[in-house]
Amino acid sequence: MSEAIARDLMSRRFRSYLPVVVDLETGGFNAAGDALLEIAAVTLTMDPDGNLLPDTTHACHVRPFDGANVEQAALDFTGINLDDPLRQQVALDESEALGEIFRPVRKAIKAHGCTRAILVGHNAAFDHGFLNAAVERCEIKRNPFHPFSSFDTATLAGLVYGQTVLARACRAAGIDFDNKAAHSARYDTERTAELFCAMVNRYKDLGGWQLAQREQEMDHQD
């Protein structure tokens, strides 16, 4: 029963969209020509009280596509070593990596009674642009994410905490953040998911989202 309640709440909370937190590590800033090197996604769920919670993490190392550009400055920033034998063993081609991420996202959409995923990211336009470029290169027809709408935690954190840098926003929210572990897609995505949930839940606790009351008002208007 509680799972059914949570499923119903999630499907109504964001207009039938399921928020999925995404972070990409790349070989530069040009989505059309620079390599996608890591991708991670955290699906979210909801408890019967309407609290948003991180659910499962999915992450992949990605082989640069043929002809991709990789800036040394990007590798220095992320700490990614393309020649690392362990990375070479587990890295997937871009299309395979997207499949590994998209399959559980589609499953989560269905499980929560939603119609589509909506990307949540810290400076979401960057991740969204690279994701869409990869989808186009791989000719993927069933992209579970909305093609242009997203939730940007940098903007939200600026409003809520007065901080736009991920590490500072997390600390303002009471979330531990290890600078040494940062700039891996998995770590940054998991911290961003905690941050997004903290802000959404804080808004709810302040009375900003009262789902039952909102539904009653809408029914009365109809």
Features:
222 residues; alpha/beta; 5-stranded mixed β-sheet; 9 helices; 5 strands; 20% strand; disordered C terminus
Q: What share of the residues lie within helices? A: 40-55%
Q: How do the strands line up in the largest sheet?
A: 3-2-1-4-5
> What is the number of helical segments per DSSP (H or I, 4+ residues)?
9
What's the Cα radius of gyration? 18 Å
How many extended strands?
A: 5
| Oligomeric organization of the protein chains | single chain
Shape: globular
Q: Regions with pLDDT < 50 over 5+ consecutive residues?
A: 216-222
Rounded average pLDDT: 93
Strand residues, percent: 15-25%
Structural class by sheet pairing and helices: alpha/beta
Task: Tell me the series of helices and strands, N- to C-terminal.
Answer: HEEEHHHEHEHHHH
- End-to-end distance: 28 Å
- Major sheet: 5 strands, mixed
Describe this entry's structure for a reader.
With 222 residues, this protein is an alpha/beta fold. It contains 9 helices and 5 strands. The protein has a 5-stranded mixed sheet, with helices on both faces. Helix 6 packs across helix 8.
The gist of it:
With 222 residues, the protein is of the alpha/beta class.
Write the layout of secondary structure elements.
Elements: H1 2-13, E1 17-26, E2 36-46, E3 52-61, H2 72-78, H3 85-90, H4 94-111, E4 116-121, H5 124-137, E5 145-152, H6 153-161, H7 166-172, H8 185-205, H9 211-221
Parallel strand pairs: 1-4, 4-5
Antiparallel strand pairs: 1-2, 2-3
